[in-house]
Records
---
Amino acid sequence: MANFKINKGFNVKVLGKPKAVVEDYASQQLFAAYPSEFEGLKPRLKVKAGDAVKRGDVLFENKKNEKMLFRSPCGGTVKAVNLGARRFPAEILIERDAQEESITFDVYTSDAVRQLSREQLVDHLLNTGLWPLIKQRPFSKIADPDKAPKAVFINAANSAPFQADFSAVLKGDESAFQTGINALSKLTEGKVHLCKSAGSDVPDFENAESHTFAGKHPSGNTSVHINRISPILPNDTVYTIAAQDVILIGKLLKTGELPRTKIIALGGPAVKEEFRKHYKVQLGASLKDLLDRALEGEEVRVVQGNVLWGDQVKADTCLRYYGSEYFVLEEDRSRHLMGWTMPGLFQYSAHRVNLSSVMGFAHEWKLGTSLHGSHRAMVVTGWMDRHQPLNIMTDFLVRAALAHDTDEMVQLGILETDPEDFALAAFVDPHKTDVCGIIKRGLEEIEEEGL
Amino acid sequence: MKFLFDLMDKHVAPLFEKGGKFERLYPLFEAGDTFARTPGDVTPSAPHVRDSIDQKRLMIFVIYALVPCILFGIWNAGNQFNIANNVEDATLATDLWRGSAMVLPIIFVSYLVGGLWEVLFALIRRHEINEGFLVTGMLFPLTLAPTMPLWQVAIGISFGIVIGKEIFGGVGYNILNPALTARAFLFFAYPAQISGDTVWVGTAKTALDNNMFFGTVAENIDGVTKATPLAVAAAAEKGTDAIAALGDAGYNWVNMTLGNIPGSIGSTSVVAIVLGLGFLIATGIASWRVILSGIIGCAAMGALFTALGLDNAFSQIPFYYHLIMGGFLFGIVFMATDPVSCSATNTGKIIYGFMIGALTVLIRVVNPAYPEGAMLAILFMNVMAPLIDHFVVQAHIKKRTAYARALNNA
């Protein structure tokens, strides 16, 4: 148990914080699974359009590890398998039947979980399709089941605008959460760390060590938690998982059925005020109904994730496997007269070159997607590191990644990180460098070359 | 206004875009277009919002910080000219006219020739025109003597932009500060026009100069000689008092601070530089670490020489004279802080700045050939900056590994 204060960081003051209330979202007819969501995964499809599937039937498996299965979130008929670039299956659409059949698995009580061996548990999670919820560092990919990690980090903190409030998510599911923690504690010989935001009313749980993190964003990022609690050394592996996903694992073990629902936060300036809250949504269900009603603005961008880190998705998306937040903002293609010299009262900035930041306006901004400038050659100034609490020398790490210098990247600590840790660096950069993309490619290169 | 912009988007922009008639000239169009209005691009991927700062704003703000130096430099050039040439009816207006006539052509040539190179390289390489040249093109003339022949200005800025910057790949890739590279080139190639006693104040040519704007030159003087404070101090005989020598030449700490003395166009006035410095620090553009450690380095080295009691008159002047004499302050505020050529680590910036200050005084006092040490000190440290950063980064790597091991063993 420790309390950490993160001194460096920056909060993007953006409008549209979701209220901490949870509303039930009506059950839907259309469901989907997105094989393209799992980076680096080579899927082998087990269904084709027109097939009848039960809830829990295998939709596709991992070619590299055939034990790793991905199961259907609902029972019904496969409506379509849409292929993306290079005939990669991008989405599997499933129409739900009125009477859906479910596949059931073994049931374990909270204590029975503790009696399982690591192998049994790993096989069970792989088989039920929930294993991919667990990710690993380095490389921030689906955890390698064969490599026991030195610790497991559960992220129950939130600092980016706007992540789901875990204290709201947890209500009523405490025992499932405990069961999930019990399961995770079997996966490692080390500890399970439960990392919370300071001031949240998430209680402590057995078999996990609780920590609180105070401070601005990225105090809620897993990399920061790892860095402060148990930094990764060469050849170390740690598992990471989002707190809500632990509940899903707990529910699976307790009920013997695939979990049905998940709570998502919907926020952002392009969401109507009355819709900015948390929703209890069926896994894999279409969000079209909700988004149709909730969004406002001419041209909007729906982000699955938060404003700093997430993927752009279509407005008729279904709930994805990962993530529990959606952020919607307006595409801002407006052009401003001589922006290089205007006082900048109405432009948001973390730098003191705008009057708005000099005067320290406290209000929340209706930010859009404007790049606010054009791309220029990167200059190593040290500015990217200004809001970086990880001791990684951001500028130099980015430069090493640009230069494909894998040795220096590793030495500077890229293995501790995930591209999301560089979102603030990309935000403040005046040269509009694609910092997150550069880091992502760097990590891929290192993985290819091997450590 | 909107009507005009719509017209541009509809009829002019397609000519320069891919497949258009003037496709090759796209960088030129883009520069003008984004100068008029911020670009309408949206973020391609996460993070989905970006800070409203960009390179244009950053560079223009450096120019704003230079405004006091530019204005004072213009007035001072005219004022020095009128005093030295005994212009009878000199007023503020004639000072400004005279100064403008001397300085503005230099700035104009610097921008014109420098801009041409920048555009040429952008067109050939098909990348956007970088705003960095706006700063280079302004810094360079401010470091020159007001009597600089314009052809030399053109050659100097060409060397600075092409050799100092473009052959490395443009802004962001260069090792040396391009403006100082340009000045150093002129300093060694044409020393007669940038050093010595005769270049800092112009000589009137009566026939041309007598008119209502410039005032009346009473008598025609053959060559005005005026040594700069640095030259006076460096020339002081062994065993004499350099302060007294400065006083005899008409220099004291008051006029060296105000800057109404002969010298490079933009760098004589401490007051004007400090105004610019305040703006740079308030907006957070320049690194205070470089500037503060540079000033400390300069003062410390000056104090050290005084304490050593060498048999060298220049070494005996109080340390604060080093801060206000010559181009040091201008250099440390505007040149040394160039983010491309300076150290990028925080520790590195402190070492880098300190060394510039210390080396400046060392060169001034010990090397009789170069009375001004700031230019060479900054260029030398530009070269050393990557090395400093290398050691700082290596030290950081050691520290972070030790931190990780300690926490894991705890």
---
Amino acid sequence: MSEPARAQLAALAALAGLPALGPRRFLALVHHRSPLDAWALASAGDAAALARALGGDRDLDTLARSWRSAADGVDPLAVLAAHEAADVAVLAHPSVLAEPPSPPDGPRYPERLVDDPEPPAVLFARGGPVPAGPSVAIVGTRRCTGTGAGMARELGRELAAAGVHVISGLALGIDGAAHRGALDARSGHPDAASPIGVVGSGPDVAYPTRHRDLWEAVAAEGTLLSEAPLGARPAGWRFPCRNRLIAALADVVVVVESHAAGGSLHTVHEAIRRDVDVMAVPGSVRSPAAAGTNQLLAEGCPPVRDAGDVLVALGLVRGRRRRPVEHRPLPGPDAAAVLDALGWEPATFEHLAVRCGLGLAELAVALEELVAGGWVSQHGGWYEQRATA
Amino acid sequence: MLGLVPSATLLGADGHAVTVEVHVTDGGLPSFSIVGLPDTSCREVRDRARAAIESSRLTWPVKRVTVNLAPPTVRKVGSGLDLAVAVALLVASGQLPAEAVAGKAFIGELGLDGRVRPVPGTVCLTEVLGDAALVLPVESTDEARLVGDRVLHPVHSLAEVVACARGEEPWPTAGSAGPLPEPPPLPDLADVRGQPMARYALEVAAAGGHHLLMLGPPGAGKTMLASRLPSLLPPLGPAEAIETTRIHSAGGFGLPPGGLVRVPPFRAPHHGASSVALVGGGTSLMRPGEISAATNGVLFLDELAEFSPHVLDALRQPLEEGVVRVARAAATVTFPARFLLVAAMNPCPCGHGGQPGGCRCTEGARLRYQRRLSGPLLDRFDLRVEVQRPRPDDLFGSEPGEASAVVAERVRQARELARARGVRSNAELPAGRLDDLAPLDDAATRLLLGALRSGRLSARGLHRVRRVVRTVADLAGHPGALGADHVALALSLRVDLAGATPHPESVAG
């Protein structure tokens, strides 16, 4: 890469670290202006000049001050060097930086984002290049039920095994479960499709910290993308931007569980804006965690019963295949009665004791049998059915 | 002239014998000095005693008065020595004959009008007075009667004491103790409709002495359930009754009519409690705290996560040792603190948590809420149950559940089995003897091994669960080897805090 191109790329990387610099402002800054000039403008702290560049008539004094203090002492070339040292590729949108900044076989700016209505000016990537094959985003609430998490994991596993790249946000709940599933598939078959993680903080800042292992696994097995440079803390405004990237990268967005007005509905909105198909997993009408997805279904979203439905929507298979029969020991008579009483909503031990009229000890034995046999999962004193008899 | 009168002072929940010595001399200017490590309230005796003596138409000597509280190494706290000081002063000033008060000890606070008022800790004070006859406030008679057979002279006022000492009236004596009045009925378990698991958890807690944590949303009846626990516990034995009565007397927690605490106490301090209020102490008073007041009974901590973490961690040592040692610069005292801990908390700040997908809190908020409880404290709860609101059908029209008396009988039998094993309750079974006393059959072993392998149970939790299994089997009338049904039930009485552990579907593997 030529030295001038390197300096321009470095300026982009430095710009990405500024606070409250969303995609629209970023594009406005580098519109008809080289990244180096944009960096000079952003770090100068001149509110009037910024207002001219960004358009609009808002008073930008606070923004100018915060950018100037954030840019103070930042050397763009050092920022770029830090990324190179950490093996994080800095990918610039072709319209922002004309000269291809990296060799053709290295990581490249994702094709799908080039013509996006709101593309990121610069992306930071860990792991391999963004693959070109079919891809599905699996998104949903962080406050999910066991059924939802189990469904996300199953979809992730089966789609990855069928060669579909699973995209998700690596958040708690549905997101994480989907990628765990995709990684399950990879550990069994190395030719399963690689996962793509899109995150809202710097690619080295695992958030939530509980998912550090998942971040590392996704970066090792697939690709980890972010609009934020190394070290960027998770900030509230970055997550909606992250959701738009998830929608933009996917062929189909599958919502597994979403509360009414949940954050995943934002991803849905971005997908509709980009003409990306949205599908939803039906949930119990009494489950608050499924209120959002059931609303999507009521509005005409195609339902997802299993990975087959998604594969049909992608045009990868013609008709739905029968699901292979799962082999698990059949429950005994007591256990079958308990399974029946449990139904498909979470219940506590006490709920079940009242419903099925068994003695506490018999009920406890029946539940142990169901948990051991994989029929029922137990978490925090709540039991949920996982499979039908 | 010299006056010597025995009395006693309170430190923590222990009485210490004190001899009040008063010396009155004509030499020098009139003065009053008090020595022998009195605290402020004790030092104020001068003003109370002077007013009481003058109100009783006696004379305050216009002389040099020295009061010594022997032994001078023990700190004297409070107003219990007032009466003794006044009497000794009257003897020293020649207004009472010395032989009239010989062999008598005096306890009581003086009012300015000369009346004699009760003081906290009468039980503990009486214990240390040897075989002296005790002159004490009428209100304290019941308490003093609880320890020993000494002669008691209950009095109303200083004037009465003086009249008796001068032989103008006979000393009043306390009549023999009548039968203790029946304690008022305790809240009964029959009031609880539905909620079979929560009821059972109470039964196991009462039978085995296992600490209980109830998780559930507001309005699920956690407080109602906990307050039923004393009615399931066996009534206090004579030694236990005295132990608890001493603490209640010394701490001023209030005593029932008759003076003796016979039903297991139920203490429910508010979550704003300071660590001193909970474990005891204070600068000079060394008052027992709520955990000692709950000795031989129930300590109920509602809204456990709202207690300051520092206060909760102060509970760990007493929970382990059954006593609490409070050390201050002035003294170190030991209080009994052997109680059944019952705690209740919401699973998360919004209170609706627990139900998967039903909570409005973020995962982080829920974790932070639950992390306020330290792991070691959480480990002490052998029983952790999810308590949900009873359904409307259960509240109306359904049969009332078993009454406390029925459950208490099973509890009594289980406790008897524990006593035969040499412990008060199964929670105290030594780990080394579990293989003997709580052997597992094959199916039970497999189930526990499975729970260990899946990480649901830690190695440390294993012993604790085995004790609970023993109690479950005892209650079911199975004194022999423990079966899989007992293990399964004990495991379902031990839920994890949701959120403290990641959801099984979302972890690797």
